[in-house]
Amino acid sequence: MTLHTSLRRTLLISLLIAALSIGWGMSWPMMKIALREFPIWTFRAWSCLAAGICLLGLARLSGGRLRPPAGEWRGLILAALCNVTAWHMFVGYGVVLVASGHAAVLAYTMPLWVVLLGAVFLRQPLEAQSVIGLALGLAAILTLVSADLATLGKAPTGTVLILLGAIAWATGTLIQKHRRTVLSTLALSGWQLVIGSVPIFIAMPFIEGLQVPTVSREAWLAGAYLTFIALVICYFLWFKILSLMPASRASISALLVPAVGVASGALFLDEPFGWREVLALAFIAAALVFALIVPREKPALSVP
Known about the structure:
This protein is 75% helix and 0% strand. By secondary structure, it is an all-alpha fold. The protein has one domain.
């Protein structure tokens, strides 16, 4: 890889990470606004399905392959159950049970689980830059939740559910990264959202019943943001980043999301923003530097 190509690649990944972080980061306050009025599972089921159909429609318009080969369905379903179904269900319940806004940051322990699961089950080597980046990212998360440790301790069920969501996302990330596909990023994202919505639809009537909620304009706008920005655009961005980076470093890049989430929460919901948030941003900025470093390729050995 030439220096010019490497710089262009790094710039592209940086722009994708920035867009993803803003889109997903702002989804946290939007989620609070929407779920004040929408039933959780009803909203999640319909939003995932609508977003998946939109992405598949875009994939069809782009002219790429829409239907995966028979051999790819198993991996696609497993990844969707982790990335979409388990993630949305665990975190949805966890956010409701844990009152503190910073509790949602626990979901972004995901990079830790990617590194640990990859090392244990896939025998992935631990790159020094990934370990350093991960340590800085976890320092940021601990900084953000340090003010709310007592609150988290009083709501252990919610905390455990959010951590289970993070583990599910990490598992889906590793499944997706280590299974080749002929699908475009649009089609891949669309199928995962559609497949992942099916178990939520099945569980929905047993948990919430069949109801048509009456909600405010503010909740509808937040719901539209979560569906078309956080799901349609950001799932596409996430899978694109995952195709360009190793899973461990891609997951570290997602650590910017909770920082944006806390900042947008302060902006839209008057949540606290003080020295902890500033320090966490500094940790995350440093973590991103290590995540974006492209290892220098070793020169090929000459054969005498």
